[in-house]
Records
---
Amino acid sequence: MQGHIHVHISIEYQQNKGTLFMVILALAIMGFRIAAILVVVLLGWIYKSFIQPPKPKLCGTPNGPPITSPRIQLRDGRHLSYKESGVPKEKAKYKIILIHGFYSTKEATIDASQELVEELGIYFLSFDRAGYGESDPNPMRNVKSEAMDVQELADQLHIGSKFYVIGSSLGGYVAWSCLNYIPHRLAGVALVVPAVNYWWPSLPENVTKEVYSKLLVQDQRTFWIAHHVPSLLYAWMNQKLFPSLACLEGNPTIFSQQDKEILKMMDSKKSIEIQRKARQQGVYESLHRDLMALVSNWEFDPMKISNPFSNNEGSVHMWQGYEDRFVPVEIQRCVVDKLSWIHYHENPEGGHLFVGTNGWPDRILKALLLGEEPALAK
């Protein structure tokens, strides 16, 4: 009898042990599932909060900025905001499309003298590039799309079969795009302190490595992320642990002494307002997409572009400051050494901002339109 009781107790113990094990296993599985759900929720929150860019605040929508400038509608449905200045286009002898740079808008026009504009008969057409100011963002933005926007703008505003292009700073990549994709529409081009892509195939590796290593570490990291993992650029630009792009943070190191003096003379209220409008639809749609386009893998190599004016019916000019800390002079020299048909103008004491002062806008226009060789000035 005692043996039967012992066996019964043993069996019951084993059953209870098995039940306890199952309960523990069930709790473990449930805990794992809960942990997995929490991880997924956490990752989703991180993605939505830090990695996924917010939706743009489109101009003219209930929650977006107002539309205050004339706009055209492109074939893909987007709108481009533009500004006309100079002499009326019906009376103009020269028609120039101005392409603004990083963190800027159509309001940052060339500061040429009114006397020269009227004397030569110059019509200016500036516009907010995709995502900037009052122009709709372009989720498919790339180097080519920028040139296509320029061409369609010119067609819809009927400025003629040929026109001049002046691309400044980061807007210089748009001028390169025009030289490659729509050379038949160009009467002449000025590349004004144009930004460079360190991943152009034909740039000498030893030069790019040396120049790149001289950049601020924060800029090296930002360019690398924008080129290699652009999907993380928004998160990188918005994190607070490490500095990102120096020019957005106002790091004084990137300005030459001349640049600092020029900044003191500039209208700070106007600059602040331009920067506010530049990003009003969202920094990702304006600044970040622009930077990603610049350092992306281009469909063409600028250093293999053929001279679009082989019969001297027009010309291409590049303007560069030796003391420019945004765009290294060594890179520009490599480019013009390869493309000898570009008229290269280097200011030995100029920084990145030199072309906006001391009569330089007039020199740029005379060289581009009249072929006059400019005298260097500080």
---
Amino acid sequence: MRLPHTAARLLPPLREGVALHPRRGATRTPEQFLSPKLENKTKGKLQKQVCQVVLDHFEKQYSAELGDVWSSVRDVLTYPSCWQHAVLLNKFSHAADLEDTLCAQGYHPAFSATLPYLPRSLKCYVSRTPGRFPSQKHQTGRLKEYYLLNAASVLPVLALEVKDGEDVLDLCAAPGGKSIVILQCASPGQFHCNEYDELRFRWLRQTMESFIPHPQFDLITISNLDGRQIGELKPEFFDKILVDAPCSNDRSWLFSFDIQQATLRLLRRRELSVLQFQLLRSAIKALRPGGSLVYSTCTLSKAENSDVINLILNSCSNVIPVDIREIAKAVSQEFTFHSDTQQHELLVLPEKGRAWGPMYVAKLRKIQST
């Protein structure tokens, strides 16, 4: 999703993980997944420096918004070596021995059957131990076996509860992780993945090509439209819509390499909430009465999370909040949630050993206008 005018520079880089396709063949040992070159590359990434300008800004804002919770969250966000990565299996491709390999390395399913919505085809594994598998470059004509991501990125899709045959829109889809999760859960009637930014649009398309086989890929619409206009272009067209909005990505912003760019981002941060509101208004127009919408970000910022949702609820009489507290109860062993949220929203707080998030999730339903 591209931001308007100068705000485009605020767009965060990769919010989710990277895809990986281990070599097919005999049962693999943990050591076979890591080459010395990849190990060194990973170590190099863990040595990046925190941007003090951003940290100071977050310290002031999040101390006020989160209270005592902020100090433990800050310790995780500023220490990448304790970050974790979930492994989302690709139902279209993964090898028979992959789950055995994951279990042998201490991985276990991230989500339990107590969830209100958990398709059997969705398989996501997590480990309490920090670390990640190495990534593999895109190879034309070869599907990847799994996708590395922040496990909290799956929660917005679980909240959306997509069923087979429903028409679904992923409004701000790049880099494509949540679109992949949707397709692991169900087979939509029509699936529309949109990304406004040209570079990220190409990235999205490549991700989908890496995971979705033909003919399923041919049934997916991948567009490069302004998300603020889709409501006018496709009024009341979709049953389910995901708005994973551009936001002030806390993890990546903390490691900004350019201090001037970081300062500019912080100064223009308030423009993001305006864009987020506009995207939600557009999504509501594109949603059929009775349909559901999930809004998500990967920031802790109240201005981009609950404030945006409250503004929508106060200005749009045809949407109502949907209680999603059962999701938090069902996954409380794997995720830490902020206690000061309303029944229609969740905020995942990174914690050592459960370093998932930040991830904000809110769910709305459209009702018939009176």
---
Amino acid sequence: MRCYNIIRSVTMSTLRPSFLAHDLGLSRPFDIAKYAASWDEIKGPQSSPAIRVTDTSFGGVQAQVFESTAAADQEPRLKRGVVYFHGGGWTLGSGKMRTYYFQCWSMAEQLDGVVISIEYTLAPEARFPDQYNEAIQASKHILTVEVLSRYSIDPKRVAVSGDSAGANLAAAVAQQMALDNSAPIKFKVQALLYPTLQALDFNTPSYQQNGHIPILHRPLMARFWLEYLNGDPNLVTSLLANNHATPAPSQEIVAAKVKTNWTKLLPVAFQKNYKPIVPLHGDPKLLEKLPGLLDVRAAPLLAETKVLKAVPPAYIMTCEHDVLRDDGLMYATRLKEAGVDVTVDHYEDGFHGCLSFAFGPFRFSVGFRSFRNYTHWLKENL
């Protein structure tokens, strides 16, 4: 309980005044939270004898590269590589924030490899599909002989990974790159940490169970989606009510609902006693206002089975006390049904963003355990 109180205090200390300032017409919805987060950024690359850090760009997209130099005095050898996308609802955060910076640093050290942290443009300066396009652009540039050779990365041992909204980008990138016949070098694995993968159902069991649990509240996730999809912030209530699910849904919605049907895709233990939420009336025009809701580039859970069959083996971390828990679990089920090798790493005492709490001023046991198991999986499978 003490850790939840700490997290709630840290989260709301920036978000509440940020939303208040927006309501008063003084700023955009997340401006104050962004400004506060910028104070936590590492200023300039800081290397050590074990890890070399450089700022660079790939395909015009900014990034930080963390290279292990542990065996620099030995014969040149090829190393593991990880392309990483940070979380923050496509709106907040940076790979230069201390938690992400030290996470990528530690990953490079633990894997004796190279971690490339992508600095995609945040909303509202960029909106979907801009972040997705930047993620694809950077990944394509990295997965070339020239770039991989420059960093001594083994082209057969490159992973794509990310957390939360970054895991959304990682999953979407894994799907697109698997299908791209023009890219001879592919990601070997994908590692998704508490991913957000759909915005059609804000009433899955995990959303109902954890709607008011920090660090990610249910209305906050809806606001992040609206920022990403360039929707009116006033549509939060419609999203939370599942208003796209009208009594007479379109064929598109019917097809999409099959891929997000948690009564079929979730293990029974996670369904508990929750029931699907269907509005009495709904809003037939909601999809016209938010066409991105059905776009697989924004919602990887909606991918066709033939696409899922092509993606690399997956590691999916989920947390019991997280509104996004069921997104990850449903995706794991769909991947398994498509014949993809999937490892689900579930934490009964986990909460959204818990892995980041292996670093920084607030450190929790679940943070250390989740980071250890995540890097162990990468070691074993990359």
---
Amino acid sequence: MVYLILSLGIFFFDHQITSTCTMRSSSKDDENDVETGKLERGREKFVRSNRVVSTHNKALLSGFAYCISSCSMILVNKYVLSGYDFNAGIFLMLYQNFVSVIVVSMLSFFGIISTEPFTWRLVKVWLPVNFIFVGMLITSMFSLKYINVAMVTVLKNVTNVITAVGEMYLFNKHHDNRVWTALFLMIVSAICGGITDLSFNAVGYTWQIINCFLTASYSLTLRRVMDTAKQVTQSGNMDEFSMVLLNNTLSLPIGLCLVLVFNEVDYLSTTPLLKLPIFWMLLTFSGFLGLAISFTSMWFLHQTSATTYSLVGSLNKIPLSVTGILLFKVPTSLENSASILFGLVAGVFFAQAKMRERSQS
């Protein structure tokens, strides 16, 4: 996490310098205004500079909260599935979504947030994308059990490649050469990483590739479904809180059916892990982390922009990969470490290329 803290620290320090210079210039203006009878204008500048500092502090805090929650979620899931050798990934997803539903419902009940009431028309519109959402979460659990965290973060770059191709064919969106170069580097890094992975597991890699396709499908279809869902809601709006509650609520019966289909009930009835209070605390904590990712991502996106959000998300993979290797004592080689670093740098390059592409359009 040292790299993350330094990155955010540089971001904060840069804005603090700008804010300090602004405050100093405001102080000089105040002295001049006392002499010229224009003190009020200096006070207004001082207030504006304080607002700038406050805005930067909120952006730093929200970005740090988002990075901590997203990193912690992946590491905790990895610890539950591999550290405890827990063989019920669907149940883990089901329980995490259940915790999210309970928390959001309580916040809505006490009037802290507002959510859209569920209607049959809304459920019918949202149900297809919810199947993709559940598949995305489950395949992520399955892959994380067999693959180390660093390789998961590199392989997730394949999602960007699939999404870019999907945007080109489905929405007729064209990307510039920088984006395609970054996508090519991602593919190369994923292939090199798999070849040099000392703990290579074909089952885990298969689940991760399926997860990449499902994640790309989810992002490509979500926007269209959101626009359709707004038309069938009572308020004509579909905010993030309603989306989180709807997604997680609809996933509960689907997850319960999959627990029965994959016969996780027999395992759950015999495993001694469910008799450990500390294990239940860990499962509940992971549920709160899943909800925290939704809230902090919305908060961070509101305080900054989509481009900053995507860039920080790419930078966030670097400390996550290093932490995953150190915590779980992953056997690695110089070649594998180089391919992982290459993939992470390619992800940052992709985020920067997308930022330039958006600014030009």
